[in-house]
Amino acid sequence: MSLFVTLGRSAALALLLATTPLLAAVEPNDAQRQVAAEVAESLRYGHYADVSLDDDWSRRAYSRYLDILDGQRAYLLDRDVAAFGDLATGMDEALLDGDLTRPFALYQRYHERAEARFEWLLDRLDEGVDFAFDSDKRLELEREDAPWAGREAALDELWMKRLKNAALTLAISDQDAEQVEANLRQRYEGQLSRLRQTNEEDVFGLFMAAVTGSIDPHSEYLSPRQGESFDIQMRLSLEGIGALLQADGEYVKVSSLVPGGPAERAGALQPADRIVGVGQEGEEIVNVVGMRLDDVVDMIRGPKGSVVRLDVVPAQAVDMTRSKVIEITRDTVDLEDQAAQGEVIEIERDDGTHRLGVIKIPTFYVDFDAWQAGEEDYRSTTRDVAKEVERLQAEGVEGIVLDLRNNGGGALQEANSLIGLFIDRGPTVQVRDARGRISLYGDTESGTLYDGPLAVLVNRLSASASEIFAGAIQDYGRGLVVGTDTFGKGTVQTLNELSHGEIKLTRAKFYRISGESTQHRGVEPDIRFPSLIDPELIGESSLDNALEWDTVREVQYRTYGEPRQYLETLRSRHRERADQHPNFHYLEQQSALASRLREQHTSVSLNREQRQREVEAQEAEQLALENERRRALGLEPLEEWVDARDEEEGDEEPVDRAQILEAAQILLDYTQLESTWHYAKGS
C-alpha cells in the first residue's frame, strides 16, 4: 500500500502493468468458430444479394470492422492498422474456416489502446484540468474520414481537446469545477470498467457485426442474449419506454418510437434525440456517453409503473450542452394502444362547412393468437379500420385521410388486406427472393368497402408495410399521397437458429405493382410537406451498405382515377395556404435552418465565451422562428428555445396537427376538382 503513496498513481499503475496485465487476452471458443462457418454458409446461400466471400468482400468487411472498433480514429495508430493489413484480404478465410485468431488479435490491440487512453484521461484529471477555457482551438466532431494518427502525441492532442470539450460542456451546464471533475472521473472510470469486462462473446459480436453489416444493415448475428431481447421486442411485451435505440458513435440515438408506447404518449422523446444519461427514480443520473448500447437498453428497461429519468439532447439542438432531463413512466404496449382511431374534421369554406374523416393507423397489427385459435372477432388493423370507415361514412364525411405517419410497418398480410378495403380485387405487392422468383400478393375479394376520395399522409418514419400500402394507393390512382419521402425499407428478413445464437438474414425484396422497389428511395409523395427529420440521420438511405433501389416487371392492374392530372392545381393551392399558415411557414424555415446549422456545426470552440456566443446566436435564430409562429397563432412567446418542445403540448394547433389539417384541405380540393371534372364530362 505504501508503494502507491510513494510512487503516485501513474507510476504505481505502470509498475503494476509491468507484472500483471489488467485483462488477459480474449480468445475465441469452439462454439464461435463453428458458428462463424455457419454464418458464412447462410450469407453465401441464403442472403438476397449475391454474396461472394472473396478479397473484395474482405476489404469491405475489414474496413467496417475498423469503423466499429474505432470509427472516430481516436485509439489506433497507423502502425496498428498496418500490422493487421493481412485481414484486408483475410476476413473471408477467417469466417469460412472459423479461424478467428487475427480478428480477435486486432480487437486485443484496440483494447490495449483504449485501456491506456482511459488511464491517460484519468491521469490528466489527477493532474488537474485547466478550467479557464480561453483557448482559441476547436474540436472537429466528425472524424470518420480522418487519417490514422502516426504518433501517440497526435492522439494526445486530440484527447486533450476532447477532455476540454467534455469539461466545457458540463461547465456551461452550470456545474462547478468540483462537479465537472467528479462527473468526468465517473464517466471515464465507468468506460474503463466496462471495457475490462469485455468477454469473448462481446468480441465475437463485434466481428460478426462487421461481417453482416458489410452486406446490408438489416442482416445481423444475434447472440443468445440478443436473441432473447429480440424475441421480447417482437412480442411487444417488454416493460420499458417503447423506444428503439441505435448506436451513433459514442452516443445512443433514438431511431423510432413504438406506436402507443410510453415514450410516444409522453411526447418528450423524438427520433434522432441522443440519450446522454440514464437514472432511476430518486437516484442520480449516470452518464452513458461511450457506454455499450445493450447496457444502456438494460438501464432503461424496468418494471411497469416505475419511472426512468433520461438526460436527452434534442435532435434539433446545435450543441451537446443543451440537454434536458425528462421522466417517462415505464409501461407495456398492448394491442389497444396501437388500434386505429378515427375522427371528423370540419373545414370552413365560402361554400359552407365540409366534413372530412381522418383515421390514424399506428402500425399494421393482428392478434395472431386469436386468429390462429379461430376466433371470429379477433383484432386487426384491417378490421379496426373497416369499423372506423363505416362510422365516418355514417357521419357523412366527404373524404378520408389515412394517417400513416410514424407507422413503421408490421404484418404484411394486414397491409395487403387493408388495400383490399379500397380496391376491387387486384395485386398489391410483389416479393422477389434471392433466386429471382417473384411472388405476387393481392386482394382476392370482390367489392370495396369505401370507394370515395382518399389521401394517405406519410413521413420519414413510415416504413415497410406502410410503404407497400401508400405505394399501392398511388399506383392504382386510388388516392393522393401527401407528406414527406418515406423511410425506404423494402427488404424482408427471416430469423434462423444457429448452433450458437441466431442470424437475421435479408431474404427478399418488396416491389410495387408498378415494378418499382420501395427500397432505399421509399415512396415519394404527390404533394410534399417540409420535414424536421434529416434524411441523412434517419431512413434507409442513411444506413451503411443499404441495398439499392431497382425495378422488376410491372404487373397488370387497373387504375381507379388520375390524381396526377390535378397535381399542379393542388400544389398551387397548397402552396398558397402553406405560405399563409404559421405552422407550415415555421416548418419550412426551421427545416432550412436546421439543415444549414448541421452543415456549419462540424466543429466546436474550446473557448467558453466563443462557444456561448455561437450557441446563443444559433438558438436565437431558432427562438425567433418559434416565436414568430407563436405570435401568428396568438400564443405567448418563449424566453428559451429549449422550452419549445414542452410548450407545444399546450399549443391549440401544434405543428403535428397542422399537417393533418392541411392533408384534409388537400383532399377537399381534390374532391371538388374531381367532381367538377366529372360534371364537365357529363358523367
TrEMBL record:
- The region annotated as signal peptide is 1-24
Q: Name one GO molecular function term.
A: serine-type endopeptidase activity
Chain positions covered by the region annotation Disordered: 598-620
Which CDD domains does the UniProt record give? Answer: cpPDZ_CPP-like, Peptidase_S41_CPP
Indicate yes or no for the key word Hydrolase.
yes
UniProt entry tagged with the keyword Transmembrane = no
SUPFAM superfamilies, per database record: ClpP/crotonase, PDZ domain-like
Q: What is its EC number?
A: 3.4.21.102
List keywords of the entry alphabetically.
Hydrolase, Protease, Serine protease, Signal
PROSITE patterns noted in UniProt: PDZ
Record-stated family: Belongs to the peptidase S41A family.
Q: Which NCBIfam families match?
A: prc (TIGR00225)
What name does UniProt use for this protein?
Carboxy terminal-processing peptidase
